[in-house]
Amino acid sequence: xxxxxxxKLLIGLGVxxxxxxxxxxxxxxxxxxxxxxxxKNSMYYEIVYPTRGVIYDRNGKILVGNKAAYDILxxxxxxxxxxxxxxxxxxxxEPSFIVEKMEEYxxxxxxxxxxxxxxxxQVPVETYYRFSEKIYKFPGFRGQARSVRExxxxxxxxxxxxxxxxxxxxxxxxxxxxxxGDCAGxxxxxxxxxxxxxxxxGHNIFLRNSRGQxxxxxxxxxMDKEAVPGKDIVTTIDAELQRxxxxxxxxxxxxxxxxxxxxxxxxxxxSSPGIDVKMLADIGKYWNEISSxxxxxxxxxxxxxxxPPGSCFKIVNGLIxxxxxxxxxNYVYPCYKGYHYGDRVLGCHLHKxxxxxxxxxxxxxxxxxxxxxxxxxxxxxxxxxxxxxxxWHDYVESFGFGRKLGSDFPAELSxxxxxxxxxxxxxxxxxxALTVISLSIGQGExxxxxxxxxxxxxxxxxxxxxxxxxxxxxxxxxxxxxKYYEKQYTMVDTTHFQKVIRGMWRAVNSGAGSxxxxxxxxxNGLNICGKTGTAQNPRGADHxxxxxxxxxxxxRIAVAAYVENGxxxxxxxxxxxxxxxxxxxxxxxxxxxxxxxxxxMRGGNILYKVKKN
Length: 613
Description:
This protein is an alpha+beta fold. It folds into 2 domains: 192 residues, Penicillin-binding protein 2a (Domain 2), CATH 3.90.1310.10; 365 residues, Beta-lactamase (3-Layer(aba) Sandwich). Helices cover 35% and strands 18% of the residues. Helix 3 crosses helix 4. The longest helix has 26 residues. 40% of the residues are buried.
């Protein structure tokens, strides 16, 4: 019998050939994706940049909008001889700039080919219109529309942040989402909400001929893609209050944070010295000026600076003492110009003695809270000092101190609250309550941000809980984390807060002759409750600190003000914070003494000298 092997081979080859022919037919004829890939090199994609989302304040005022601008593009292979002086004049640049660019393109001619490159970015509309009227004289040159940021209100430069062209480092981290020439939010809200604000790029596709020259639209624009505008963002900020706070902090180093206690929404966040919004609009132009400023205006002190809280922290220790049962509102302690222990004394200003808890808050007695902290740490129900101290630490942390609060604002600092382990290491096991007695008045190793202080004040205003502070409101197409709607309770029972609030009310409203340390913050009818602080500063004059909320019942605003090198809390921080409260609740400052006070705060310049880097 003859072998049928040759026949089988022929059949096998026929089958393989049929499969290959079928695959080629599918690739070349049926599947449009492969057609596009095959013609990709003969197509030119023109990017269509989306309009970036608008940023609004809580009342619908535009904080950050957009205005039209144009990039000037050039396709070197299509350029014909032109009048350099005329083009430079139209584009408002030096002729040498044009010459240098064209020489650069000539050197890279092969690499660029018939691609277009950006010669000039973000040309103002009036400049582009002037150029477009004469564009026929300059073959190979064209404009590409894009929007740039504008700022109708000078409010919150540090808070808003800036947008700039992405650099190599940024592309390494986000190379799959961005390409050279794209812009992105780099700081502040612009960075925090970049995903919503940026939108989605579109493109127009054009066909090239064999020489690389553009002939027309690909498929009559069927494959073009429209740009998707970015989503608008609504912030919790009150633009007018923010701007007012900036005017009060002019000539000072420090910050103001104002919070709505019932929601945790940040009404104002002022860092001074800060960034004027005109600098944000053209950050590249002002970058050298900003980066060389010794006061570091890009540094947002409201969330990035760690300070001792000073006497404001007495309220924390008082609440812990009440919860632990080692303090009652009627307990009285003496003060002989301070707290004396061994051959040392923690000093205090002159006031009546002895005094009860309300009076201790009203007059800000240091000695009183030395007794309170000592009793907390020497509580017999704990087996050791370390156990008592770490319990104290847990109480303090429950108020939000010593950790990041979880705000939606970037670069938030955690601050520092020491633990027993910290002191065991520092003092090699040889320490006791008196060793750390300065913690009783908010000194020692404690570090908090102004945001921590404002949040604590809101917690007291709410009688024992807070909402995590945040700067973005939920709006159409923009959601916020559900955690911002959840109450965060402290470890202190809500029943104890009214006992300290009465002392804070008396500090402000008892009259100048009463010994109340914050009488300068009194405003008729507002029932402001506050606490002054004078935080020791080893590198200069003491810091001026004040926190307050109002009204006492159903509070609408809580404010913390921190003025570096400002001295007593009543000198700068208390007037500034109380003016913020008055402006927000009343809409204006009362004539007479209050307007005089406003004038002194706005005109005061206490900038301390800082060495340049």
